[in-house]
Specification:
The chain has about 70 residues and is an alpha+beta fold. It is built from two helices and four strands. The chain has a four-stranded mixed sheet, covered by helices on one side. The protein is elongated and about 40 Å long.
């Protein structure tokens, strides 16, 4: 499974990182790096929850890769 992290910057300078393939995975950070890390953590938590509740087989996720889009 390949996931993409996209970025945007708010008017106040905060970065938003989103994973479009996973509904609701959006995270803020003071920097692009902080937002990216927060989004990756959230994406992994969402996927773990989906595996736990039978929405995915763990094997469906392998190999799991993330791609960071240009800001």
């Amino acid at each position: 499974m390949r996931l993409t992290v996209t970025f945007d910057v708010e008017a106040d300078g905060r970065w938003i990182a989103s994973v479009p393939e996973l509904s609701g995975v959006h995270a803020y950070g003071a920097t692009r790096d902080h937002a990216a890390r927060a989004a990756l953590v959230l994406a992994l938590r969402v996927l773990a929850d989906e595996v736990e509740h039978g929405e995915h087989d763990a094997e469906d996720l392998a190999p799991l890769t993330f791609s960071l889009a240009a800001a």
